[in-house]
Amino acid sequence: MGIINRFPDFMRNPANAVASSSQSAGAEGYVFDGVDGSQMALWECKKDVVSQEHTHEFDEYFIVVQGLYTLIIDGVEIPVGPGREYLIPKNVPHAGRGAAGTRTIHAFGGKRAGREP
Q1: Which of 43, 78, 82, 108 has the most CB atoms lying inside 10 A of its own CB?
Q2: What is the CATH number of the domain that holds 70?
Q3: In what order do the strands lie in the sheet with 49-54?
Q4: Biggest distance spanned by C-alpha atoms of the chain
Q5: Virtual CA dihedral for 54, 55, 60, 65, nearest 10 degrees?
């Protein structure tokens, strides 16, 4: 099969596209809902992306599939590269930067992302 540089088409169904108001400029995301109210989201950074500091009322887990995501907690920069994962506990303020070409998969313990109308 070889190296894949983007999520497959079936994972990027427009019906699951994350609303622009729920993601950083330059990111393209797709969201999937669990019956328990949790969500999984896939993000591709089309260009360098900045996520401003924010919190969630639920835990967030993510893994970097490709590229580099720099997580920022308490002013400390934590580089997370391919195959690396991170758990952000609920209510922990965090921010980050995704380099162009970065792909990540996130699991949220609650509803994080809305869809495009």
Answers
A1: 43
A2: 2.60.120.10
A3: 49-54, 94-98, 69-73, 76-80
A4: 41
A5: 10
pTM for this predicted structure: 0.90
Work out how many domains the chain is built from and give that number. 1
Q: Distance between CA 91 and CA 57 in Å, rounded?
A: 6
CB atoms within 10 A of CB 117: 4
Q: Is residue 71 part of a domain?
A: yes
- CA–CA separation, 14 and 65 (whole Å): 21
Q: Which of 91, 101, 92 lies closest to 69 in space, CA to CA? A: 101
Instruction: Specify if 3 maps to a domain.
Output: no
CA 24/CA 112 separation, integer angstroms: 13
Distance, in Å, from the CA atom of 9 to the CA atom of 45, rounded to the nearest integer, reads 16
Q: What is the pLDDT of residues 20-68, one digit of tens each?
A: 877 788 899 999 999 999 999 999 999 999 999 999 999 999 999 999 9
